[in-house]
Amino acid sequence: MSGTDGHEGDHEEGHQGGTAEGSSTGSSTGSGDGEELRWLDAQEKAAWTGLISLVLLLPGKLESPLRQEHGITLFEYLVLSHLSEAPRRTLRMGELAFLASGSLSRLSNVVKRCEQRGWILRTPDPDDGRYTLAVLTDPGFDLVHEAAPTHLRSVRGTVLDSLNTADQKALVRIAQKLRIVPDDFG
Question: Edge-to-edge, what's the strand order for the sheet holding 132-136?
Fold first, then answer.
């Protein structure tokens, strides 16, 4: 990025980890609202790179064994697992989307596939017909029960066994601070 913002060397270190957005205009504000663009310093870049690596690479590492051994995606496993732990194996779709860290539209597509395979049933909520309930069937429960050891080995081997208690507590704290709820959660 050095030199691309028209300030040869002025902000070279500060551009590490930043994007080219705003820098091609020759302006260091780049945000369009007059606010000064703050480039990432070395510590921020390291934190961001670590986080984005986790976000982009970790799901694939956790999903691969589930696909190979059970023919399901990580998201499908999370949906089935959360239902298996719920009272009467039943949750409102919005709550299930939140627990599985997905949008309602993504969940709807996955639940439809799971319904076709006989793992989940959808039914109107008898307490409030505006909501739809997802119910885990016996075959769905059997599948999540079979897949759980595979997932547990993957979680331990890929993540938890490499972290000490302080690291694990830090992850919990960071996740709580960064909690992102999908726009269509409700």
Answer: 90-92, 132-136, 120-124
